[in-house]
Amino acid sequence: MSKPLRFGIIGLGNIGQVHIDCFSECKNVDLVAGCDENTQRLDRLPKSAARFSDYDQMINSGKIDAVLIAVPHYQHVPMSIAAIERGIHVLCEKPIAVSVSEARRLNAVAKKHPKVKFGIMYQQRTDATYAKLRELIHSGELGEISRITWIVTDWFRTNAYYGSGGWRATWKGEGGGVLINQCPHNLDLLQWITGLMPSRITAVGFIGKTHPIEVEDEISAILEYPNGAIGHFMTTTGEAPGTNRLEIAGDRGKFVLEGGKLHFTRTTQSISELNRTTNQSFPTIECWEIDIPVIGKANDRAALLQNFINHVNDDTPLIAPGIEGVRGLEIGNAMVMSALKRQPVNLPINGEEFDEFLEEMGRTYGGRKTIETREAAVNMAASAR
Ligand SMILES: NC(=O)c1ccc[n+]([C@@H]2O[C@H](COP(=O)([O-])OP(=O)(O)OC[C@H]3O[C@@H](n4cnc5c(N)ncnc54)[C@H](O)[C@@H]3O)[C@@H](O)[C@H]2O)c1
Q1: What is the pTM of this model?
Q2: Closest ligand 1 atom to the C-alpha of 15?
């Protein structure tokens, strides 16, 4: 058996601590080093691990084969590139980047180093319910997809959360709000489950609609797909109790995933064919109501980490390749730009245009914390045109 993979971790904050525990659940790996610029947090590491306050020193130390990057988003790209160029395998936290241009730059570097493994911490891809839904859709059970509707309003956050300061909910610190912080998993799953990328997005959204923050806290988007399918994505951090309901309709019925339960209303015939061939105006649609049994865990970080370790050790296929991080990110970039510029955005999006938009948002709204009324939120979004 090969020697355990020597892993280091950069960033020992909220999620870094959780990852430390995940390492103890995994096989064929040793957490041998950790890095945080806040040196008090180095105490969170196991006693045997080497400690660094400078990530470059850890990457160049010769002590690690792979690194898990768990620092705020803007540093994901420079740290991933630094590690990949030194031949260190990278498992990076979501989002892979803040802007699509940065994610594309990272992907170009990763492609130049095919022997260096590159993954993203999209642990929700290990969720057995999402994986089952994807499997059924990809096997053709649903036929051609006609509608995808995801209400994700269960991301409620309070003013106290936003008031805890730091890099969160600022254009400078994280480059956006609910789409870049809370929704990256949903935006990835949207494209991963369906296998579809939208070609155009039209969104409505608000900066600080329900919280005194400078970034967006509510977005509703309409997604147009090349095959004519339509999507709806609704999210906010201001609603409670929220809803998390995903509906995917197609030629052979409809999947509904809500409350951890996956239900399939399966038509006994193709709806498009029935439409073409029947002479009845109001036919009864015969359906089977199926509760899809799902075996397995939800949202398993250790499983994603183990998959990455196995991928490095023996080329086990990656559940979440790093280069796929750009896909959900691009959908989120398009939504926020469409909402705040109040105009539709075509995909693939123009990376430079998004970067200019991001700069403009920082210049215009950076540091503003006093948006308190709905009316002010509407005016701010309108003035961003
Ligand atoms: N996959 C998930 O479900 C999930 C969950 C939570 C957070 N995240 C992601 O993880 C990242 C970190 O989030 P968090 O909540 O842990 O943030 P955090 O602020 O709690 O922790 C970040 C840590 O990084 C350290 N750090 C910052 N810059 C550094 C540098 N240059 N060198 C060394 N250390 C540095 C900070 O001192 C801090 O300890 C974010 O990108 C977030 O989106 C992912």
Answers
A1: 0.95
A2: 16
